[in-house]
Amino acid sequence: MDEIIKNYINGRWVAGKGSGTFKSINPANQANVIGVVTKSSGEDIDNAVEAARAAYEKWRLTPAPRRGEILYRAAELISKEKKRLGGLVTQEMGKVVAEGLGDVQEAIDMAYYMGGEGRRLSGETVPSELPDKDAKSIRVPIGVFALITPWNFPVAIPAWKICPALVAGNTVVFKPSSDTPVCATRLVEIFEDAGVPKGVLNLVHGTGPDVGEYLATHAGIDAVSFTGSCATGEHLEGLCGSMHRPISAEMGGKNAIIVMDDANLDLAVEGAIWGGFGTTGQRCTAASRVVVHQDIYSRFINMFKDAASRLRVGNGLRKTTDIGPVINGAQFKKILNYIEIGKNDGAKLILGGKPIAKGECARGFFIEPTIFGDVEPGMRIAQEEIFGPVVCVMKAKDIDDAIRIVNGTHYGLSSAIYTSDVNKSAIAERDLDTGIVYINASTIGAEIQLPFGGTKHTGMGPGEAGGRGGALDTYTKWKVIYRDFSGRLQKARLDR
User: Fold this and answer.
1) In 67-82, which positions are buried (b, 16+ CB within 10 angstroms) versus exposed (e)?
2) What distance lies between CA 83 and its chain's CA centroid?
């Protein structure tokens, strides 16, 4: 390819100073190169951070409604490019085209929502205990942010971070996944066209070890927002903690659907299929576990197997495809290894379990939809995040046993229950130790006007997206202001 995908630093598209380039490959067809990408060096990171630092003072003093208007323009531009961007998501990441379009729609929604925050950014005004004195709290920006994003939502998750960071008055150095650099570049081009001033948003390409860690620990960075694996996130948490640097980390999940004996089984099976095999299981909210009441276990397994066996695997650009490839060769090998672990540990392979190496699938990283039955809660495949089209089905005696199984992992992102009993649903929403709980719906489908995040090892810091406890709590800090207009010294509490 003639065009080299470049960095964007201080309002200019520039080649990185790292050694050579790297390729972005279509996971459905390894012969299809989506882009040849520049490699960044430490000097590139230094320049990007310096540009963000230089732009910060003017940007933070730009009225928040003006910042929001730029996000509105970005939303309009992304909307116009939705079809093209959605197709690019499918080509570079592999998810089916309907999901690629949904990925882009989430970015549009986030840009509109956070654009509106430019006229809110709400604080609090409260009465003072003293006369002729007022008291309030306001949100203020933190400074220069390092944003590090994964490959599974290559447009949506960058927008989740960029939009609130900018509307709050921060400047940004953005490092996308090296598996999806072209999607990230096209998104940044749109923000450039929307009028983001030079230095406010900067883009650097490269791998996590080479670029991400150097960026997250750079002396000129004030805070970090990371989405990715637990191993990387916890490593960065340690580094940032030693530097007294705020970090928001959204990491893994081992999400579960509970199916009670009074559930609508057709609906529950549909939810388990979507949760387990949507995006080829490559969502942090994927339903990789299904916990089924023992009285309906056999019936559920048969229905679930039958539904999964009808899923069509192939290139996501075909409208008839239900499941695309996994992202790359390393993930392909990891998933197949976990399938062998499951078999060796005594789980019963109900469906799938093999790579697909025929027809058009022979050129990509395709794995059959895989179901394990008779899974014990302590097995590795029931405890560790596989991040692929593999679902473990377990038995539960009752609602309490089911909740115990669901809560029995290091993760706590998303969970769901299918039941017709309002009391069981109430117990589940109270006792499930996850950041998100669905009633009679699958574990995926979060909406951007509420915070997104989990408990335990799933994450650290405020959630992503909107609402109380969401992204604005990541990208702002609180300042409390007391104004005394009495004209005399008043001593709180002492003067009473």
Assistant:
1) bbbbbbbbbbbbeebb
2) 21
Domain spanning 256-439: CATH superfamily: Aldehyde Dehydrogenase; Chain A, domain 2 (3.40.309.10)
CATH code, residues 4-251+458-481: 3.40.605.10
Q: Which two tokens stand for residue 229?
A: 């694996």
Any idea where the domains of the chain sit in the sequence? 4-251+458-481, 256-439
- DSSP secondary structure code for residue 420 in this structure: S
Per-residue pLDDT of 130-169, as tens digits, reads: 999 999 999 999 999 999 999 999 999 999 999 999 999 9
Catalytic positions: 250, 284
> Tell me: the pLDDT tens digits for 230-252?
999 999 999 999 999 999 999 99
293 forms bridges with which residues in the sheet? Answer: 396
Q: Is a pLDDT exceeding 70 seen at residue 1?
A: no
**pLDDT band, very low/low/confident/very high, at 313 (cuts 50, 70, 90):** very high
Is the distance from CB of 230 to CB of 162 less than 8 angstroms? no
Name the one residue in this structure whose structure tokens are 């997250």. 216
Whole-number pLDDT of residue 366: 98
Q: Which two tokens stand for residue 275?
A: 């949760």
What letter represents residue 495's amino acid?
Answer: D
Q: What's the burial of 163, exposed, middle or buried (CB within 10 Å: 0-12/13-18/19+)?
A: buried
Structure tokens at 283: 């969502």
Calculate ∠ Cα 148-154-155, nearest 5°: 105
